[in-house]
TrEMBL record:
Keyword field contains Transferase: yes
Secreted recorded as keyword: no
Keyword terms, alphabetized: Glycosyltransferase, Transferase
Name used for this protein in its record: Glycosyltransferase family 1 protein
Gene3D superfamilies referenced in this protein's UniProt entry, alphabetically: Glycogen Phosphorylase B
Domain of life: Bacteria
InterPro entries, sorted: Glyco_trans_4-like_N
Domain called Glycosyltransferase subfamily 4-like N-terminal: residue spans: 16-171
């Protein structure tokens, strides 16, 4: 089986969720089966394993609908893409696409780093369900990252193709000394973007209710957004890292009281797994995907409720509660590994390639 993996969504300089999903799976897939990576920028190789690669056009190029003409030259049996938007016109190979979530149907502000014309198309794309159905039905099979999203795909009847859950996971950020004890310094950590649906305002308002806690915001932030958040709750103790290396992130996370997230919707939640793997409890909004990931280890609060979030964080101060949540978090995180996900994905790719060859 000649396998090609679309790695063009790997970010230059730093990973986002889809970028990390791609790199984590490629690394493990290559341990199990030879493959060739598709890239659109040589700098993407810095975040990828040393494997055969081919340079093709960018996924945001106007050439994307016909990218199959470039991919066909590699004579693949099956191509896996970590997104659902890979062009497929003219393909003569099996194709497996990935749909991570349906967030942008409810929260239609597109990612800010996309070109202007792509942002416009993004908004139009999410005004109706039929464009999604058209793309998904052009593939041979669909992958998604959680049972939560798989359920949404079924409920909206987005595809006639089989849907397989290949869970997200998290990279190793260090080896914690277990069992852990509650850190003496009250520190909360948020890792994620500042898109409106992420609920960062709720985190900041909750931090203002916890004057002895610092809220560390790890991701890159625009100056105007930083000023807005600082003015939103001046009494909150906010620490802006404006981007952090994995080592810096791991250091802050390993010494944190909790990872906090107030998202209104997610396809997965890699930061939860990263924190739980280190034995750091997670306090998160009560949405289905976080129930799926955090299980009994997590503490939950209603969406858009800073007071409830502050109360949940306070619950960790009960005798033995932090240590109990820490131990349960490590167990919960062990369910999500790139190795297990790669095994599941490779089984699917072999099945799809064999079906296509019949």
């Amino acid at each position: 089986m000649r396998l090609v993996v679309d790695c063009r969504y790997v970010r230059v300089g730093h990973h986002d969720g889809i970028s990390r999903f791609t790199a984590g799976l490629v690394r493990e897939l290559a341990e199990r089966h030879p493959l060739t990576m598709l890239i659109s920028d040589h700098r993407q190789l810095e975040k990828l394993p040393a494997l055969p690669w081919e340079l093709v056009s960018s996924p945001t190029s106007v050439r994307e609908p016909w990218v199959a003409r470039q991919v066909r030259k590699l004579r693949p049996d099956v191509v896996f893409s970590p997104m659902q938007t890979m062009g497929s016109w003219g393909r003569d190979y099996a194709l497996v696409l990935t749909l991570h979530d349906l967030i942008y149907y409810e929260n239609r502000t597109p990612p800010r780093d996309l070109p202007a014309f792509v942002r416009g198309l993004w908004r139009l794309y999410h005004l109706a369900w039929w464009p999604q159905r058209m793309l998904l039905n052009r593939a041979d099979a669909i992958v998604t990252v959680s049972d939560t999203t798989a359920g949404l795909i079924r409920s909206h009847r987005l595809t006639r193709r089989p849907v397989t859950v290949v869970p997200n996971a998290a990279d190793e950020l260090g080896t914690p000394h277990l069992p852990r004890t509650r850190p003496e310094r009250p520190r909360l950590v948020y890792m994620g973007s500042f898109m409106p649906y992420k609920g960062v305002d709720t985190l900041v308002r909750a931090a203002a209710l916890l004057p002895d806690h610092e809220l560390h915001l790890m991701s890159r932030v625009r100056p105007e957004e930083r000023r807005r958040l600082e003015q939103l709750a001046p009494q909150a103790r906010l620490v802006f890292h404006d981007g952090a290396t994995d080592a810096e992130y791991a250091d802050v996370l390993a010494g944190a009281t909790a990872l906090v997230t107030a998202s209104k919707a997610e396809g997965f939640g890699i930061p939860l797994v990263e924190a739980m793997r280190l034995g750091t409890p997670v306090v998160v909004s009560d949405i289905p995907i976080f129930r799926e990931i955090g299980g009994d280890a997590a503490l939950f609060f209603p969406v858009d409720d800073p007071a409830a979030l502050a109360q949940a964080i306070g619950a960790l101060e009960r005798p033995g509660e932090w240590e109990r949540r820490s131990a349960a978090s490590v167990d919960a995180a062990a369910r999500f590994t790139w190795a297990a996900s790669a095994d599941r994905l490779l089984d699917l790719l072999r099945e799809v390639a064999a079906r296509r060859a019949r």
